[in-house]
Write a structure and sequence with these properties.
- The complex is a heterodimer of chains A (283) and B (347).
- With 283 residues, chain A is mostly helical.
- Chain A has a single domain (54-279), classed as MetI-like fold (Orthogonal Bundle).
- Helices cover 77% and strands 2% of the residues of chain A.
- In chain A, strands 1-2 form a two-stranded antiparallel sheet.
- Chain A starts with a helix and ends with a helix.
- Chain B is an alpha+beta fold and 347 residues long.
- Chain B has two domains: 3-229, 3-Layer(aba) Sandwich (Rossmann fold); 237-342, OB fold (Dihydrolipoamide Acetyltransferase, E2P) (Beta Barrel).
- Chain B contains eight helices and 20 strands.
- In chain B, strand 16 (290-299) and strand 17 (304-309) form a beta hairpin.
- In chain B, helix 3 (108-121) crosses helix 4 (137-149).
- The radius of gyration of chain B is 24 Å and the shape is elongated.
- The relative contact order of chain B is 0.12.
- The chains are: A mainly alpha (283), B alpha+beta (347).
- Chain A binds chain B through residues 170, 172-173, 175-183, 186-187, 190-191, 194-195, 272, 275-277, 279-280, and chain B through 51-53, 72-75, 78-80, 82-84, 86-92, 94-95, 98-100, 102-104, 129, 131, 147-148, 151.
């Protein structure tokens, strides 16, 4: 066994070259600015100060808002789906999970383009509306389109992570709850839901993280004017060429994401503590 | 005693395999009934039908003379101690036990009193705030019993509740369970494949095999008067032989005629005969009714398990005396030690 351990070495080298070094470069860029010819870099906090402009702060809050709403929608839509799948027969479960994950086999960019042809003014949906004599509705480049794209893209992560926990749930616990007089709703609220919270928490992580920093979906479905933090960073690197400022925003985002993860975990832990001490009062 | 539960012709099959082949059984108030049989005999299935977790294909279940086949489990006045306890892992001991009372919306002080009292009964005072995941197997077992009993059910179902415990703990819990049952005075229906457990605790044992009831009786009945070869073989060790019932009080086996106390069989009927190992004595060769050679002697703690070989068979004998291997000896038993049974399928 020990011989195999050395097999990990090239991977560590790869990781440090292409993950750790770039990250360090981002930190370096974030804290510096282009100086004169003699000193290539000069230390500064200016990049961070620049971010505290009402325009950028507004973008930040818009991003958080979109990500939070996306996450909540994914829980509301994803939980019942995961619940139904976990209660289906074993064969149906395999099939349904396959169907849920199937879209993920196709590139996200392609899928987002597909939504454009569905939602655009002369698109599939509006053609159907017209066929029934309804007035066309403007859907592209609205909050609705962005939210739809977000939920569509990230929902599978929520479903899968909740499903994984629900599928492992011991059926005997549900029987025990019925046995003790709890009807199906009470059983769900007092046993199934609290025990599936770890799945919801990891689902939140899996949805919120990419949702808060995505730039593809707002770019294509929200249009050029739809500015989220991901687009802002992309612009700084690709269009404006302000690598220092772009790096600073990336770092700020990293800190916010880390903070929200710590908060989520803390809430999760507190919740399970409360249930064990206070006796299911939380639910 | 009043009849509390009645199974009428219960048939159940899973994917074309027949698990219960028409079970008829009555269970009374305050009775400790054990469903005993090898795994796959249908005993747990019968218990689950009573708990309401699965439904039968045919037949009726009556509880207090009311058909309950269509009553969901949460409306039945029955509580269950599950095979692997099924305690709620996100709750502590108190909350697990209080679960049923909270569902019934009893007030806080009543719940507290009842839970405390129940934890005292199962010897878990002071464990209220412990997370159940940190308890030992035996303690979890007690929580499971308390959680079920606190609801004051009319019937408690126990599905091999001691299966996961070690031998010593199992014996302790057997005694404790019997004590608890006598204290709370309700019907216990206990499922096990352990014949010793069944003999120790039960008022009535229901021996099952392959989806059918083989015999219903008190532990002494089942042990001393097994109705057929299966029961005799399953309950304790026995010498089971084939013979012919020549006439009342006369049975022939191993080419010898023996006096016995059984009667009422057809003359010259082929029968199965049971001789319990502890009922046979090893005596000097001239005093024996059967002669043989001691083949082996195994020390088993309280007794020796001796194998004696005769031209016809090997006999298993339990004796507290030490015997010499290879010695020729006689075997002696009394007419009342011979137990005659109908061959399976002929009665």
């Amino acid at each position: 066994m020990k011989g195999y351990a050395s097999l990990v070495k090239p991977y560590i080298l790869w990781m440090s070259l292409f993950i750790v070094v770039p990250m360090l470069l981002i930190v370096l860029y974030a804290f510096t600015e282009h100086g004169n010819a003699l000193m290539a870099f000069r230390f500064t906090l200016g990049n961070f100060m620049r971010f505290f402009d009402p325009v950028f702060i507004k973008v930040l809050f818009k991003s958080l808002e979109v990500a939070i709403i996306t996450t909540i929608l994914c829980i509301i839509i994803g939980y019942p789906i995961a619940y139904v799948i976990s209660n289906a027969s074993e064969r149906a479960q395999t099939l349904l999970i396959l169907l849920i994950t199937l879209p993920m086999w196709i590139n996200m960019l392609v899928r987002t383009y597909a939504w454009i042809s569905i939602l655009s003014d002369g698109g599939i949906l509006n053609s159907i509306f017209q066929f029934f004599g309804l007035a066309p509705i403007k859907m592209m480049y609205t909050d609705f389109a962005v939210m739809l794209g977000m939920v569509y893209n990230f929902l599978p992560f929520m479903i899968i992570s909740i499903y994984t926990v629900l599928a492992k749930l011991d059926r005997a616990l549900i029987h025990a709850s019925h046995d003790l007089g709890a009807n199906p709703l009470q059983t769900f609220l007092r046993v199934v839901l609290p025990l599936s919270m770890p799945g919801v928490i990891s689902g939140i992580t899996l949805v919120f993280l990419p949702a808060v920093s995505t730039f593809v979906i707002p770019k294509f479905l929200g249009g050029g004017q739809y500015m989220l933090i991901g687009n802002l960073i992309e612009n700084q690197f690709i269009t404006v060429g302000e690598w220092n400022f772009g790096s600073a925003i990336s770092l700020i985002m990293a800190v916010i994401i880390m903070g929200s993860m710590i908060l989520t975990r803390k809430i999760d832990r507190d919740a399970s503590d409360t249930t064990s001490v206070e006796g299911g009062k939380l639910w | 005693m009043r009849k509390l539960i009645e199974f009428q012709n219960i048939v159940k099959s899973f994917n074309d395999s027949l698990v219960l082949k028409g079970i008829n059984l009555s269970i009374h108030e305050n009775e400790f009934v054990t469903l005993l049989g090898p795994s796959g005999c249908g005993k747990t299935t019968l218990l689950r039908i009573l708990g309401g977790f699965i439904s039968q294909n045919e037949g009726h279940v009556y509880f207090d003379d009311i058909e309950i086949s269509n009553v969901p489990p949460y409306k039945r006045e029955i509580n269950t101690v599950f095979q692997r306890y099924a305690l709620f892992p996100h709750m502590n001991v108190f909350d697990n036990v209080a679960f049923g009372l909270r569902i019934k919306k009893q007030d806080k002080t009543t719940i507290e009193q009842k839970v405390k009292k129940m934890l005292k009964l199962v010897n878990l005072e002071g464990y209220e705030d412990r997370p159940v995941t940190l308890l030992s197997g035996g303690q979890q077992q007690r929580v499971a019993i308390a959680r079920a009993l606190v609801n004051e059910p009319m019937v408690l179902l126990l599905d091999e509740p001691l299966g996961a415990l070690d031998l010593k703990l199992r014996k302790e819990m057997q005694i404790e369970l019997k004590k608890i049952q006598q204290e709370v005075g309700i019907t216990f229906i206990y499922v096990t494949h352990d014949q010793e457990e069944a003999l120790t605790m039960s008022d009535t044992i229901v021996v099952m095999n392959a989806g059918e009831i083989q015999q219903i009786g008190t532990p002494t009945d089942i042990y001393n008067e097994p109705e057929n070869r299966f029961v005799a073989d399953f309950i304790g060790e026995s010498n089971i032989l084939e013979g012919v019932m020549l006439e009342d009080y006369k049975v022939k086996f191993d080419d010898q005629v023996f006096e016995c106390i059984d009667y009422g069989f057809e003359d010259n009927l082929e029968v199965d005969i049971v001789l319990r190992p502890e009922d046979i004595d090893i005596v000097p060769i001239e005093m024996g009714r059967i002669k043989g050679v001691i083949k082996s002697s195994l020390f088993k703690g309280v007794h020796f398990e001796v194998v004696v070989e005769t031209p016809y068979r090997e006999w298993i004998i339990h004796t507290t005396d030490k015997v010499e291997v290879d010695k020729e000896v006689g075997l002696h038993f009394f007419p009342e030690d011979i137990h005659i049974m109908y061959k399976m399928g002929t009665y």
